[in-house]
## 1
Amino acid sequence: MTDNQKAFADELIRTGNITQSYLNAYPNVKNANTAGVNGHNLLKNPKIKTYVDKRLELLKKQSIAEQDEVLQFYTSVLRAEELEEVVISSPLGVETVEKKPDISDRQRAGEELLKRYMLGNNQVLKDKLLEVQIQKLIKEMESDTNTEDRLAEYFSKLDGAFDE
């Protein structure tokens, strides 16, 4: 891939506009129609297409928080290391100040960490939770059967009471 082709691909990633990207990468081209046609032709080049796809995938990965990053954020909130900007009124007017997270924010961060940490890393805990959920469902099913049995018995007694 030539330097101009790479510049075109980088501009395309930055702007999303094929014509403008071509004009920026090839400054000697002045006609927008020519730039648009040539830009579309460049995108048919497998090397350029692969380069653009790989760069977009890399940018996508960089823009989405990884699991570790989320856990680190929750930990920093829990430890009151994160600061947030709040607007307060003062005798001097309105001010923006940084403050540590409230107790409720720290508690929520702790709960979120526990959800992810305990269940994410502990297969025994996952299995126990599943076992408890299964037992609960079994009891619900048994109670439904018992209710049905009791209703059937009640109705049979009612039938007998009206026969006499």
Note: The chain has two domains: 3-63, 67-121.
## 2
Amino acid sequence: MMDTQEIMIPYLRESVNEYRLKCGTNHSNLDWDVSYCDELITHITRIFAMYYLMTPNAGISAHSDAHQYIWNATIYLNEIWNPDWGGLLLWDDGDDYFRGVVPKKNRMILFESNKYHLVTPLSPTAGELRVTIQLRELESQFTR
């Protein structure tokens, strides 16, 4: 049986490399989610995944996961997503601004857990539930 690391490390590396090819390394404003990947995924001790279904009116307030996780990744699964439906991931870019990304099928966003982030509430008229897979690496004190 394959261990989680053997499955996830190649997937994360492939996703990051594909993203870098699409965006190019000169797009510093687009590299926020891959700039730490090599460092983050080489010291994996324990990764787990959660399947999320976000319903209308649901959102996640601004928070940091720094005390429990090393990094977070979100993979979007919806075939289509209208930005008017909400459900946008926003993160603190460190310059007194929040940046955001619209869900897009198979897009993976990877960031350090010490970044403040939130998900905007879904509109009551959203055409679909927001569907994602969340990947996280636990801090070493939380591993067995």
Note: DSSP finds two helices and eight strands in the chain.
## 3
Amino acid sequence: MKIASRINNLGTETAFAVSAQARKWAAKGNKVYPFHLGDINLSTPQNIIEAANRYIVDGKNGYCPSEGILPLREAMADDVGGKRGGTYSPENVSIQPGGKPTIGKFIQAVMNPGDEVLYPNPGYPIYESQIEYHGGTAVSYKYDETDTGFEIDIAKLRSSISDKTVALIYNNYNNPISAESSREEMETIAPPFFSLLIIFAHSCIKKNGALTLVLIILLNNSGDVLKIVPLSVDAALFTKISIFPNFLSIS
């Protein structure tokens, strides 16, 4: 059987190789602290267990709408809209099963073969993998270490913009280095990209290290929000959502 040549462009994530080694080590009776993947060994909260069991008993365990069940989309639209001072309807919200397929969908939606997409490095490995897999050119921008953490190399970012650039992938807090943009940095990044279609990825980490929320926000070239896609949701754990011009900050 002939395999499609684009498979050669599909990257991988070394965390899974480390995960396999960790499982073998744990199987020998050794203690493993699983910092290599986002799926850390925290017990499922009791209220979630009870809710899942209740839904199964009530027969709500079949296929659901591909965009997510209406009550959840209504809750997300109200929560995000209320805290951002905007008005969103369930039609603006799509619930997705995870980060990788959603990143792939957005890249396919905004990038044609031969286009360039800016992505952070260090960063989530799937950004580069999906850009290259779908025929684009992955152009990295970097972070510089400072006395207080890390900051984006703005000069490098600006110099990487070309007439082939169609999107910026921006991750704040950054995975894996946890770099957080200041307001000044956000406002510096924003102007060069108002003429571009932007994929805006934003994640928030709970105090115990577990993922609270990842949003991908799709903007048009005027900075208007076209779509909000929550990848992982625990709305009860939000601490604050505040709006900078055309950008969402979560803390």
Note: The longest strand covers residues 211-219.
